[in-house]
């Protein structure tokens, strides 16, 4: 059971990182004039 919890927490952290990268990418695109 502990392995599942650790894996879940790892995936949550990765998901947070991906979401942050998406925000940065959209901000970069907007900064270049794309809406």
Automatic annotation (TrEMBL):
<protein>
    <submittedName>
        <fullName>DUF2312 domain-containing protein</fullName>
    </submittedName>
</protein>
<dbReference type="GO" id="GO:0003677">
    <property type="term" value="F:DNA binding"/>
</dbReference>
<feature type="domain" description="GapR-like DNA-binding">
    <location>
        <begin position="1"/>
        <end position="35"/>
    </location>
</feature>
<feature type="region of interest" description="Disordered">
    <location>
        <begin position="15"/>
        <end position="35"/>
    </location>
</feature>
<dbReference type="InterPro" id="IPR046367">
    <property type="entry name" value="GapR-like_DNA-bd"/>
</dbReference>
<dbReference type="Pfam" id="PF10073">
    <property type="entry name" value="GapR_DNA-bd"/>
</dbReference>
């Amino acid at each position: 059971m502990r392995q599942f919890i650790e894996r879940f927490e790892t995936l949550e952290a990765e998901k947070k990182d991906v979401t942050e990268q998406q925000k940065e990418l959209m901000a970069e695109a907007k900064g270049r004039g794309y809406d």
